[in-house]
Amino acid sequence: MGAAKWVGEAMGGCSGVLWSTGGVWGWRQRFLLFLVLVLPQMLLADTGFLESIEIQPDTTEAPSVDPKLVEAPENTMVVVGDPAILRCRAKGTPAPKLVWHAHRTGRVRTDPARGVAVTEEGLKFESVGKEDEDSYRCTARSSAGSQHSAWVELKVLGEY
Length: 160
What we know:
rod-shaped, six-stranded mixed sheet, 160 residues, alpha+beta, 2 helices, single chain, 13 strands, three-stranded antiparallel sheet
């Protein structure tokens, strides 16, 4: 049997491998040991591969999708004093914001004093009056674009 010696730093930084010059460890065993333990460390250390492995968060943004109306308002007839809702829903990326316009008065905003609210469901009237009778449309807007609904009529029946 031959002498055994430690092989470490000279073989690519391995923490130590018992290397025999003969006997129990033949040349095949030494070669396999070299392939399994030493060579991968030498190759990876020289390329910097181990230092470059890093998990990065996904920073890609979802592609923009133009707003699309999935529920458009419809002509509605209501009796004075009754509640009414003109429904409008849209989808897109980024999520679109709904804006309402009245033909006579322009942009419609939430007005708690009059019982008018722009909500996710649509344009809500707690108690319609003759002054609410008008043509309305909703517009879905986002940074990707906009889409308008057709003008629809809110017809109010009855006396003031």
